[in-house]
Amino acid sequence: MRATEIRALNDEQLLKQISDLNQEHFNLRFQLASYKNPNPGRFRQVKKDIARIKTILREREIASQD
Q1: CA angle, corner 29, sides to 23 and 32, nearest 5?
Q2: How far apart (Å, rounded) are the C-alpha atoms in residues 9 and 55?
Q3: Which of 9, 31, 35, 66 could lock 13 by a disulfide, CB 3.0 to 4.6 Å apart?
Q4: Is the pLDDT of residue 39 over 90?
Q5: Average pLDDT of the chain, as a whole number
Q6: Is 54 helix (H, G, I), strand (E, B) or coil?
Q7: Which domains are seen in the chain, by residue range?
Q8: What is the pLDDT of residues 10-19, one digit of tens each?
């Protein structure tokens, strides 16, 4: 997911997206621990997507305080 796509969403949609990504991250960690060998690229991508969304939410929070 690109930053431009994330910026187009509203806060409620972003919070739902974070929830979904956190669930997927948990499932990938669980598969890794049980030696199911998930796609390691997807594992990294989910973590980066979560970070991007949190960054954009924080930017919006700071902008609203001004």
Answers
A1: 145
A2: 14
A3: 9
A4: no
A5: 91
A6: helix
A7: 3-65 (1.10.287.310)
A8: 999 999 999 9
